[in-house]
Amino acid sequence: MPESGKPEGFSGAVGKFNFTVTPSKTNLKNGESLDLKVAVSGTGNLKLFTLPRPVVPSSIELYDPVHNEKIQTPLSGMNGQISDLYTIIPQFKGKYPIKPMSFSYFDLGSGRYKTITSPEIMINVLDGPSASENPVVANSGVPKVRVSAGEQFQFIKLKTNLTDIKQDDFFGSTLFDVLMILPFLTIPMIVLFKKKKEAIDADVYGNKIKMNNRLAKKYLSEAKLQINNKEPFYIALEKAMHNFLKAKLHIETSEMSKDKIKEILTSKNVSLETVQSFIDLTENCELARYAPSSSVAIQQDYDKAVTILSELEKQIL
Fold first, then answer.
1. Which residue would you say has higher pLDDT here, 143 or 59?
2. Closest by alpha carbon to 15, among 49, 38, 39?
3. What is the pLDDT of the chain when averaged over all its residues?
4. Cα dihedral: 250, 256, 258, 260 (round 10)
5. Residue 55, C-beta contacts closer than 8 angstroms, at least 6 positions apart
6. In what order do the strands lie in the sheet with 121-125?
7. What is the dihedral of CA 174, 179, 180, 181, to 10 degrees?
8. In this structure, how many other beta carbons lie within 10 angstroms of the beta carbon of residue 95?
9. Which of 27, 118, 131, 259 sits CB 3.0–4.6 Å from 21 for a disulfide?
10. 46 within 8 A of 40, measured Cβ to Cβ
11. How far is Cα 146 from Cα 313, in angstroms, rounded to an integer?
12. Cα 122-126-130 angle, rounded to 5 deg
């Protein structure tokens, strides 16, 4: 690069660029912040130079920038934009200038150095505490404010919730003792559960009744599913009624004669009408499998079965 005419602060930018400094807002309330975007866009060696840094008054907090690059590299050359986004937080009420910023680059088209200067930006803080003294302009032209220590750090949290970094040992703690005792407390529960399960498994008679009850409900549900298929419907319905009697009367299949059923149901104080309805429906199931019947008759038989089983459930003592 030629030394002749090289401006002060030149950081090696070569190409053709635009330079902008844009605040997100200029009027702020106490405690608010603003973003200041310093951006260079155009064509050239965008990745090989640094952006200028803004100069702000000492009473303004300026945080490190977030750098962003949107660069493309086609055959025509590297182009796009690079930017630094600064967060600025004023501490006091008043007006604060951000000095003009300059960006210099070497223009290949003209073969000369060019400098772009941004305008001065005035930040206006509308409310909040005032500085203890008026701003004093230093030699650099940047206003500086002298404030007391109490005012300078008033935004810092004064109350904290500190916890002791030294923690109690787990060994010997209450939780340790509970976890040690818990297995011994569960042993009696396991023993009781095992004995109860063994007693249930040993109750062959009770298990058989439960199984017959399940079968009755199963076949009654199956009969409802087969209500449009005559033969499977009556087979399932007959099985449901037989299994119901097995569960309630504790009888075996070999004892399922009509006379025996009538005798046992009568001894259980079941009404003769209900007994006869049960026997009639059983006979109807046997005959209906081979005789023609309508869907209305099938639905009536199903409803009749539900009614009879409900009555038997109530009457059997």
1. 59
2. 49
3. 80
4. -50
5. 98, 99, 101, 140, 142
6. 27-28, 121-125, 94-98
7. 90
8. 13
9. 118
10. yes
11. 96
12. 95
Here the tokens at position 40 are 């260079």
Q: Show Cβ contacts of residue 43 under 8 Å, excluding neighbours closer than 6 positions.
A: 15, 16, 17, 76, 77, 78, 79
Give pTM, 2 decimals.
0.42
CA distance 233 to 289: 9
Dihedral pair phi/psi, residue 297, rounded to 5°: -65, -40
pLDDT above 90 for 52: yes
- CA dist 103 and 18 (Å) reads 9
- Residues listed for the chain: 317
* Beta-strand relationship, 27-28 and 121-125: parallel
Could you please report the per-residue DSSP string of the chain?
Answer: ---TTPPTT----BEEEEEEEEES-SEE-TT--EEEEEEEEEEE-TTSS--------TTEEEPPPEEEEEEE--TT--EEEEEEEEEEEE-SSEEEEE---EEEEEETTTTEEEEEEPPPEEEEE-SSPPPSS--EE-TTS-EE----HHHHTTTS--------S-PPPSTTSHHHHHHHHHHHHHHHHHHHHHHHHHHHHH-HHHHHHHHHHHHHHHHHHHHHHTTTSHHHHHHHHHHHHHHHHHHHH---GGG--HHHHHHHHHHTT--HHHHHHHHHHHHHHHHHTTS---HHHHHHHHHHHHHHHHHHHHH--
Token pair listed for 264: 């046992």
